[in-house]
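TASK: fixed-backbone design
INPUT:
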């Protein structure tokens, strides 16, 4: 596999002829459970919950797309650019128990997972080769879930993923024009209008965005400005309990509609990598604002969303928020 850059959109894709590994078979056991017979390679543990072997842990992805050794060695190919898929690809197990997910675990357990995520991002950002660290979760068959064990995935890449790059450029332009953070402005307008706010908890807000890509799309953001999730998490660890609770409650609400969803954490890129031509680093701490995006997958509609060039969401956020707010959830 290799990375190739689309010269038109300037986005990197990972491509190649991936021959299915014949050794990959349906496993009768879970390799991510604490008693696994074939435990994956351990990267980091957090163990803040008494009485369990570990509360959340990072392991190397068993069939990693990116590999940590070597240099990306970006090369030209005529007008094109390509590079080796250097990076990190980890599975972040959210809980040691096989059936405790982000929507039914305790707030203390979810907090442990969020602290692990912050630690892993901070650690990987010390590696100057990596421009971005992504954390995401695909849950449910139609969302492309890979493992049964409650888990998210992490990739550290030598490029900034396309959607994040769009956000970084747009946030910087907004800041240049207004000297304000666009996300902070969104939050204050949403609180004032109160048309799309799902819930607020501690310093955090959950809302349906003004222009949703799919029905019930939901974002969770800190109300205090901060570009980097990991810095926020490490500097204010007490707040991660509130974030965990809001994440759990939001997922419970979404699960009254569909079980399948994509979740992604958007944080600032690696500022060790001061890319002159991207220029995003100059005002990054002021213009960008970390957040979590949740994209529910409504099975019957999945296709039309995937192949449409323009996102089509046949349900407004104002209507979606009413159903999410009224959903009956646990405490
Ligand atoms: Zn398991
Ligand atoms: Zn902000
Ligand atoms: Zn985002």
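OUTPUT:
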């Amino acid at each position: 596999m290799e990375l190739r850059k689309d010269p038109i959109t300037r986005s990197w894709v990972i491509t190649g002829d991936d021959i299915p590994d014949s050794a990959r078979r349906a496993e009768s056991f879970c390799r991510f459970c604490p008693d696994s017979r074939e435990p994956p390679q351990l990267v980091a543990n957090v163990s803040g919950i008494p009485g369990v072997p570990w509360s959340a842990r990072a392991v190397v992805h068993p069939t990693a797309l990116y590999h940590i050794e070597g240099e990306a060695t970006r090369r030209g190919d005529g007008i094109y650019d390509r590079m080796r898929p250097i990076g990190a690809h980890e599975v972040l197990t959210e809980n040691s128990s096989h059936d405790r997910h982000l929507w039914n675990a305790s707030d203390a357990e979810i907090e442990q997972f969020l602290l692990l995520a912050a630690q892993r991002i901070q650690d990987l950002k010390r590696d100057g080769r990596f421009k971005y660290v992504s954390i995401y979760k695909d849950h449910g068959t139609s969302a492309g879930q890979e493992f049964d064990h409650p888990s998210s995935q992490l990739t550290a890449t030598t490029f900034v993923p396309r959607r994040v790059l769009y956000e970084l450029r747009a946030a910087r332009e907004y800041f240049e024009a207004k000297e304000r953070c666009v996300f902070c402005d969104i939050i204050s307008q949403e609180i004032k209008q109160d048309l799309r706010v799902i819930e607020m908890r501690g310093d955090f807000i959950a809302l349906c965005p003004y222009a949703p890509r799919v029905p019930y799309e939901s974002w969770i953001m800190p109300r205090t400005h901060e570009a980097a999730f990991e810095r926020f998490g490490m500097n204010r660890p007490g707040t991660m309990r509130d974030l965990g609770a809001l994440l759990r409650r939001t997922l419970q609400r979404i699960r009254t509609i569909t079980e399948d969803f994509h979740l992604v954490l958007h944080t600032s890129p690696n500022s060790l990598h001061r890319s002159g031509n991207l220029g995003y680093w100059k005002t990054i701490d002021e213009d960008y604002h970390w957040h979590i995006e949740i994209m529910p997958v409504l099975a019957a509609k999945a296709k039309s969303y995937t192949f449409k060039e323009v996102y089509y969401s046949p349900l407004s956020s104002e209507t979606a928020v009413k159903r999410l707010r009224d959903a009956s959830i646990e405490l």
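COMMENT: Residues 167, 266, 291, 293 surround zinc ion (ligand 3) (CB under 6 Å).
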